[in-house]
Amino acid sequence: MPGLTKLEPFTLPLDIDGVHVEIAGMYRAGSGTPLVFLHGFGSTKEDYADVIQQDALAGRPVLAYDAPGCGASICPDLNAISVHFLVQVAKEVLAAKNIDRFHLVGHSMGGLTALLLADQNPARVLSFADIEGNVAPEDCFLSRQIISHSHPDPEDFFKDFQDRVWKSRFYSSSLYAASLPHKVRPGAVRPIFESMVELSDHGGLMDRFLALPFPRMYMFGVQNNTLSYLPLLAEKGVELAEISRSGHFPMYSNATEMWDRLTAFFLGSEQA
Questions:
Q1: DSSP conformation letters of 111-145
Q2: Smallest Cα–Cα separation from 191: which of 137, 139, 151, 146?
Q3: Which of 266, 271, 229 is CA-nearest to residue 54?
Q4: How many CB atoms lie within 10 A of CB 207?
Q5: Of all helices (H) and strands (E), which one includes residue 64?
Q6: In terms of DSSP bridges, do strands 239-243 and 216-221 run parallel, antiparallel, or are they unpaired?
Q7: Residues 6 or more apart whose Cβ sits within 8 Å of residue 267
Q8: In angstroms, rounded to a whole number, what is the distance separating the alpha carbons of residues 193 and 140?
Q9: What one-character DSSP code corresponds to residue 5?
Q10: The pLDDT of residue 20 is above 90
Q11: pLDDT at 2
């Protein structure tokens, strides 16, 4: 059905906790269980645009959008943005698109947002693919820099952060760093990072993740296969998806393998 392969852009005005935001998203109508994608910090909805290239997912409803402070979404009060704020945004966008039950995918910040969303209403989620989303304190290797490299000026912190990431030895770090100024507002960095660190340190994220009652996948790049909790996830029945030639950004480093694993996970969870 060629007419269902396209992703259509949309803009959605919302009021979240008294803050007006304009959400820029992309959506495809269709049949079957919808696929909902939440991007990571400093990324955008376009991380997932190649879903239309996956023949096995043709015709599926698809939703992705730019989180406030990122991409083309507009938020006049950047200090209001936290992970809890992003969860409220997700709820409102799902309601606006009349999406009730869905497959959920989140990367990094989006994985943490997705975890809290799923934890609050697990009956709505058919499966959850967590792409290096925060589940433990050790996951704050980017966000904890707001503490370890604190700077009073948001612009200067952001420039220094870009420089540190650009020099990283991990796959796709330079590509990611080069695009940061075009994808995230400097004023949103501190409130987002502080929220991520607080939740990772004190939010009981691992317990929440392991308690989810539906199929779960934890996807990670081969360069991060030393994460201490991976054996625990496997022991508790979480599917582990190690992506070769990749670090924290498999959608940039090895998108083909990432999509193959995601597609198989979606289809398998519907047969479970």
A1: HHHHHHHHHH-GGGEEEEEEES---SGGG-TTTTH
A2: 146
A3: 266
A4: 10
A5: strand 62-65
A6: parallel
A7: 56
A8: 9
A9: S
A10: yes
A11: 47
CB neighbour list of residue 156: distance below 8 Å, 6 or more residues apart: none
DSSP code of residue 73? -
Q: How far apart are the first and last CA of the chain?
A: 27
Closest Cα to residue 131, out of 267, 246, 228, 27?
246
Q: Which residues contact 192 (CB under 8 A, 6 or more apart)?
A: 41, 69, 81, 82, 83, 109, 143
d(CA 161, CA 249): 17
User: Could you tell me which of 89, 88, 86, 95 has the C-alpha nearest to residue 124?
Assistant: 95
CB atoms within 10 A of CB 73: 22
For the chain, give the number of residues. 272
DSSP state for residue 92 in the 8-state scheme: H
Q: What is the DSSP string of 163-219?
A: HHHHT-SSTTHHHHHHHHHHHB-HHHHHHHHHHHHHHHHHS-HHHHHHH--S-EEEE
- Encode pLDDT of 110-159 as tens digits: 999 999 999 999 999 999 999 999 999 999 999 999 999 999 999 999 99
Encode pLDDT of 38-71 as tens digits: 999 999 999 999 999 999 999 999 999 999 999 9
Distances, alpha carbon 197 to alpha carbons 22, 67, 109, 130, in Å? 26, 18, 11, 18
Reference 89, options 56, 129, 119, 116; nearest CA is 116
Indicate if the pLDDT at residue 272 is higher than 90: no
Is 61 strand, coil or helix?
A: coil
| pLDDT tens-place string over residues 172-195 | 999 999 999 999 999 999 999 999
